[in-house]
Each structure stands twice: as C-alpha cells, then as structure tokens.
What does this fold into?
Amino acid sequence: MTTATRTRPLAVRPVAVRGPFATELRRGPGPLTGAVTGLVLALMLGTTLFSWLGVWAQTAEFTHLAAAQIGLPLALAAGCWSGGRDRAAGIEALRATMVRPRTRQIAVAALPALVWTVAAYLLLLLLAYAATWATSLGGGVHGARLLLVPADAAGICAATLAGEFLGRHVRWRLAAPGLGVLLYGLVGVLRGDTPARVNPAVWVARDTPATWLPLLYGAGALALACALFLLLAHRRAAALPALLAALALLPPLVHDGRLWHGERAPLAQVCARQGVPAVCVRSSLAGLLPDMERVARPMQERLRGVRGLPERYDDRGGTGGRGRPLPQAPGILAGQDFRLAELTDPERYRRDLAYALLPCFEAETDGDFPTRQAVMSWLTGERDVFANTKEFRAADRGLRAMTPAARADWLTSYFGARDACHAKQPGKVPAL
It folds into this structure.
C-alpha cells in the first residue's frame, strides 16, 4: 500500500508594491535635479573655498548666498521642467480623466523635485559647516544666522512650486532655463545697493538681520508655497488665505536697510595687554592671541619711543585711539591661514602688522620706494627681496646707522605721513 506524500506549498514572498510617489522619487526628474543642484552649489562653494573656510560668519554668509543666488533659480527651473512634463508627453487630457484626487496627483508630480532640491542644499550646507568646524578656532553660527537655514529651505520650496505652476501654464519649450536665468539675474540685481531690500541675499556677514526677519521670510515663503500647491490642486478658495498671508508678510521685508543691526558678539575684540600697537582679534578667534603676541613682540620693541602710533590693531576698521585711523586688519581670517589654536603663517602676519603702519602709496613718489622697503625690513627683521639694489642698501644703512632716539624721531615723522594719505599729497613722506 502506497501512501501519498504531502507536498508543502511553496512560500511566496510578498512583492513590495511601491506607491507612485516612491517610484517618482526614485525614477522621476528628482534625482537629476538634486544632482545638478548639488553640483552647481558645490562648484560655487569650492571656487570660493578660502573665502569662507574656517570662519563661521563667512561660512554662514556664503552658504546663504549660495541658497539665494544659485538654489532659488535652480529650484524654479527644476519645478518648471517638472510641471511641463505632461504637456511635453501629450498626456494632459489623460491626466485630467484620472480618478485619483487632484491634490494627490500634484503631490506625486511636484514634491519629488522639491525634496531632492532641498536635500541637495542641506547636504552641501552640512558639508560646509563640517569643514569649517574642523578648521575653526571657536565661535559658531547662532541667532539669526542659524534661522536662515530653515528660511532658505522654505524659499527653495516656494521657488520649486512656483516653477511647477509656471511650467503647467507657460507653453514654451525653453521656459525652464529661461525662468532660471531670469531669476538668477534678478537676485544678482537685488544684491546691489537697491532701496527695496526684499532679497534675502543681501544679508551678509557684517550686517546681520534682526532675529525675527529670517522667521518672517521663512513664514512668507511657506505661505507662498502652500498657496501655490493649493492653486495647482485647483483649490482656489483654500489657496486665497495662504496667498493673502504671504502678501501680508511681504511689506515688512521691503525696506531701506534700516532694520539691519550689527553682529556685536562675534565682532567683540580681545586685545593683548602689552605692546603698542596692541594686537587684537575677534573673540571667536581668541585662541590665536598668544601666538599673535609672540610674533608682534619684536616689532613692538623696535617701535619703542615712536610717538603717535595707533593704540591697537582692529580687524573691524573704523577709528579709535586718539582719533587716528586704525590700520587695516591683518590678513589672518582666511581659512588657509590657521588651523586649530595656532597661527600657521607667522611670517605673513608679521609683514601684515608692519605693512599696516606704512603710509599709503598715494602719499609717496617713486623715489620713496627704497625707504618703504628699508622700514619694512627694519620692522620685520627680515632681509628684503630688493636687498641687492643700491638704493635699498643706502636707505637700509641710513636707517640702521641712526641712534635709537634719532631713529624714533624719524619713524615718528614717517608714520605720521599717514595723514597725507587722506589729502593724497605725494611727496609728504620723508625719505632716507
């Protein structure tokens, strides 16, 4: 007698059914849009690397400028390209007969490009901040600058949905690149000294907006994005309140620049207690001060007895110390010049300190150049690059042959010729 063996049914693995949004997010125009956005933003930040690397304020400025100058036009062009796909494929009539709600159709078509564009911006922002964190001496992004991140993301969302709306209504094959170039030019024009400063790209490092201003801009951008989404979904009644809210938030953003206030905390100066002129640095870079003092001490010893010197260096510019114009900031704030807690180019810093004390070129004649080089060589203790010329050797010997008191008197008159820079009176600088 034979018995039948039972066969176990084959296990069938459930097939994961992806929704249309997930499919569009993976295979639609979103990935290409995000890649292009990330590449262009990376090129902009990469070509200006040493202008923002290592300084939090500069990093915040350049990433914000990249979002306004590059991110908004690219988002507008990407949304316009996405919005014109149905018309280019000839399926507008078919799309209108679909049972799926209009709101869901718009979400599936418009949001993937929006998600990829915002993700590319946030990824570049994260990489830029990570690079600055690795090379910065301290401080950080805070206050209104940190609030610019969600505000810029909201602006990119609004630009993407505006492009989607225009792409569905503007019947022109070159609408996407044309609108992107137009917005790029408009943002560039508004970056200038225009009376109406509605453009967020004018928020730069030394003119930080009030804390509520980025919040206002972000809220207005979100309201505009919601209004555009509802208009795309043919829900005009629901879009009207959002559109009115966006328009109501617009007037406070249009002003003549009087709403800006200075960023006092990162610009606060920390100065050495000894030496004239005293070396100073921003509080966020206070870790550099011991190295700066060590480099400046030999020059300060050589300047002993010289009268009328500025009391301190100040990297903010302006006036101070007996009403005399302060020297320009020594060039130490560029990212390639320092690492964590050390001054990596002391020779350059020493030359900057000496050069800041010299009269301007407008107050000199061609014959004063050897004197300038001899004074620079005396202050820095370095052999000048023009040491082989007869004129330099004569000027250098004359300066070093003076007694300390006579040299201090002569340097007093030489540095005092900085006053002739404002009058642009050549020939007022004493020569050796």
Summary: The chain has three domains: 21-263, 268-336, 358-432. Residues 194-198, 260-266, 318-326, 333-338 have pLDDT under 50 and may be disordered.
